[in-house]
């Protein structure tokens, strides 16, 4: 007599194969999420840099904060930093001017979720607060995460 259906061993083997495939897929998916956040931050930073430069073109001075460019012709509302956490309460990108207001930096907390401030000198040299931060500047960028 031939029985129809699966044996317990066959079901266990199928479940083990599925578990192995899931184990392979999850780390790959997390890596893709990280890359998506980096890409989003890069796009947001380009838009914010354009907004700051447009503000400068209209007012002959760089804005004192990113809030100054919000509602303008380039940025209606400030984008949310994709790396932001509860440690960064505003959930927006950070912004700083050099002491002489000639240079600026805009940065994301980055892959390490660092809230350590980056700075820019009067000569335009950026000192990053953390190597995982992603940013943009009109000065001298410190590494490949800065444009």
* Fraction of helical residues: 25-40%
The average pLDDT score comes to 85
Helix-and-strand structural type: alpha+beta
Beta strand %: 5-15%
Rg is: 23 Å
The H/E string reads HEEEEE
Please summarize the sheet with the most strands.
3 strands, antiparallel
Q: Which residue ranges are poorly predicted, with pLDDT under 50 across at least 5 consecutive positions? A: none
Strand order across the biggest sheet? 1-2-5
Please describe what this structure looks like:
By secondary structure, this protein is α+β, with helices and mostly antiparallel strands. The mean pLDDT is 85. A hairpin with a 6-residue loop joins β1 (94-97) and β2. The N and C termini lie far apart (73 Å). It has a three-stranded antiparallel sheet with strand order 1-2-5, with helices on one face. Strands 3-4 form a two-stranded antiparallel sheet. It has a domain at 40-137: Glycoprotein, Type 4 Pilin. It has one helix at residues 8-59; strands spanning 94-97, 104-108, 119-120, 126-127, 134-137. 35% of the residues lie in helices and 12% in strands.
Features:
147 residues, alpha+beta, 3-stranded antiparallel sheet, two-stranded antiparallel ribbon, 1 helix
